[in-house]
Design a protein that fits this description.
276 residues; alpha/beta; Rossmann fold; ProC C-terminal domain-like fold; 8-stranded mixed sheet; 12 helices
Amino acid sequence: MPQTLPPISILGAGSMGGAIAHGLISSGLAPALTVTNRSAAKAAQLSGPGVVSLSLEQDAEANTRAAAEADIVLIGVKPGMVPDLLREIAPALRPGAIVVSLAAGVTTATFESIVGEAVPVVRAMPNTPAIVGKAVTGIARGSAASGADLDLVRALFATCGVVIEVAEDQIDALSTISGSGPAYVYLLIEDLTEAARGKGFSDADARLMAEQTFIGAASLLEATKEDPAELRRRVTSPKGTTERAISVLQGANLSGIFAEATDAALARARELAAGS
C-alpha cells in the first residue's frame, strides 16, 4: 500500500460514497479528498478536516471542478445518472486520471464509450460495512487500466476493508454475495430476535441476545481464522440441542434457499443492466 494516495474525488457521495470517504479520512492516506452531493445539507455532513465537500445546490459546476482536481475519480451517482455525469466531466479529467465506477450494472465499456477508450476505468462493488472499515469490495479493470492503476484502486478500497479482484463478468455475482450479504445477515438477526421474543424474552433482551451472538460469532471467526464448518462442529455436541436445531435448518434446505435467493438477485442485476 502506498504511503499516501493521490488526490481523490467522489462524485455523488451518498451512503456508499460517504462510507468510502469516512474510510479514506480515517486511514490518513488521502490528504486531498473532494466529495460532491446534490444538497448543501448532505455536503455539510461530510465536510471536515482534509475534506472539501461541495454541493450542486450551491455550485452547478461542482462535479466538473471536483473531477478536474483528482487523479482518481469515483462515480457514486445512481446508475441512470451515470452517462450524463460522465459526459459532463469527461473534458475536465486530468491526463491519466483513473475513473472508478460504484454504479451497479454499468459496465466499464459504457464508461469507456463516454470518457474515451484510453481512460483507465475500474469497476468496483463495495458494501455498506465500509463505514466501519469492514467492507468487502470487488474490483474489475477496464480495457485501458494497467496493473499500477489497479494497485492504486486496491489501496484506496483497502482503507475500508478487504479487496477482491475479479473478472468484470463476475461483479454482478459478487454483488449478490457481499453486496447484498449484509441484508441477509440482518434478516437472520431479525428472525432470531423474533424467535427469542416468542420464548418470552423482553424486546431488549431478545435483541441483545440475537445481535451479540452474531457479532461474537463473527469476531471469533475473524480471530481464529478457523473454517466456519469447524467452529460450527465445536458448538454442535453429538445428540445435543444444537444438533437438533441444525438438523431442522438443514432439513429446510437452507443452502438451497441461499442459492435460490442469490440467483434471484443476479437475475435482477442483469435486468437492471439491460435497463428494465
